[in-house]
Design brief:
The protein has about 50 residues and is mostly helical. It is about 60% helix and about 0% strand.
Length: about 50
């Protein structure tokens, strides 16, 4: 389980902010927004 948590931290860190930035950038483009809306806004693990 430790390895899974370490890998999630490595590969998921920053993805929430990157998705938010893309949504902000393409807010007026409904085609792009419909695809971006398929993703969860929050996938990063919170520090315990």
């Amino acid at each position: 389980m430790k390895e899974v948590l370490e890998q999630a931290k490595i590969y998921c860190t920053g993805t929430d902010a990157r998705l938010a930035a893309l949504k902000s950038k393409y807010a007026k483009n409904s085609a792009v927004m419909s695809k971006l809306d398929e993703y969860d806004d929050t996938i990063e693990m919170k520090d315990r």
